[in-house]
Amino acid sequence: MKLRLKTNAGLRDSLQLIVAFLLFLIQNGGQGLPLPFLIRDVTVVDVLHGSLRAGMSVEIVGHKILSLTPATEVPSHVESQIIDAGGKFLIPGLWDMHVHIFFDPPTYFPLLLANGVTGIRDMGGPADWLLSWRRQVDRGYVIGPRMVVAGSYLDGPTSHQAFAVRIGTPDEARRAVTSLAARGVDFIKIMSVVPRETYFAVAREAHRQGIPFVGHVPEAVSPAEASQAGQKSLEHLFGILAACALHEPELRGHIRPDPAGREFHTYETILAEFSDTAEARLLEEFRRNGTWQTPTLTIWSVRASLDDPRLYQDPALSYVSRAMRAEWDPKTDYRLRDMTPADIALAKRLLRRCFQIVHSMQLAGVGILAGTDTPFPFCVPGFSLHDELELLVEAGLSPLEALQSATIRPAEFLGRDRALGTVEQGKIADLVLLDGNPLEDIRNTRKIAAVVVNGVYLPRGILDRMLAEVRK
Predict the structure, then answer these.
(1) Cα 242 from Cα 248, distance rounded (Å)
(2) Beta-strand runs (E) in 350-472
(3) Helix (H) or strand (E) holding 369
(4) Backbone angles phi, psi at 165, to 5 degrees
(5) CA 196 to the chain's CA centroid
(6) Cα separation of 109 and 102, whole Å?
(7) Which domains does the chain have, with CATH numbers?
(8) Quick one: average pLDDT of 167-188?
(9) Spatial separation of the C-alpha atoms in residues 445 and 461, rounded to whole Å
(10) What is the pLDDT of residues 65-113, one digit of tens each?
């Protein structure tokens, strides 16, 4: 089975390169750079301030936004193609800040782009392979979202992660960080079972190398300690619920799912002992240290929805292979199996508590990033980012704040806000053209009329063909 999948994946990789290059030539008229084009009479969404600029023309030349002018003005490039966007809304390209694409980039890239995802933070997989895909996208050989990658996970000696570098001592930690940094990864990813002193050795070496480290809060470390050590982002709210309980030290290390997912008894204690005072103290620590959060509410929502028929009827599942859907079966998936009705009822309560914590984070000034952990079960690449934005709004964020978590906040987190994250003159042309105002209803981010990725215009017709190919 593995050999067949590997062979098919290699064939898909080759086909993707050919198709993407031909599409690139079609979009660029056979030239080295995208042809100039003008999106005319569009409403530009200012994601910094939540304002709208109606009746604007946005001219794209090469890979960048050349100008934003009133629609009545004549474009500076008379040969610019004109795209009439009356009644439409233009937002920056979206980022999914927690993905794992190593399963199948040739399938995932079209799904991501068709959903307006023009940037991804890949949170772990085979380093050399992911770096190769990043190079192909950067050089224009493949049309895909721009990528920042961690490469191999760093985890403890008992790790069961497929692509983990197992580190048990501070010396092993230093060597692993040095090796990954030398290979060109963008950041270091920490997992759950890294020993305590080894974790702090990672933190010190990452700081010395000038490379960010992010990921799980290991069982042997508290979220406050991770924040103080300089971990730039914490994922999934792991450890945070326990840190807000009255007896956090006793609970720490007892909520990592075992193969049967039986961590729920401890979560009952966490909910019973949740302390608003402890929560406020922790969030102030995050704010003071500049520690970002990627809640991935999607994965909490899936567990809370296992008894909901709508989970299994999601039209987005038509873009998932039969093999992957079989792996996602709640009866067999190690993250979901053996959950009883009582467990699912508890998962619903946990989701509500996660909502409350995320809302408190927003109010406290803690940076929030939209991420999905795709392909976690039922988190379909691209589509799940819109699920995440809707969950953030359900948690109490405004549509603007949710939109920021997938646009300007990722750009700020990555230190790329001078080039990305807003629709402004001189910035890279990663854009999404919508048929509805996302500031009125975050669900309007799904109403995609076109996507611009690195200056290449992908109208709805091409996006539909991309999706149709994936479905086939």
Answers:
(1) 6
(2) 431-434, 448-453, 456-459
(3) none
(4) -90, 115
(5) 27
(6) 11
(7) 20-92+422-471 (2.30.40.10), 94-413 (3.20.20.140)
(8) 98
(9) 18
(10) 999 999 888 766 667 789 999 999 999 999 999 999 987 888 999 999 9
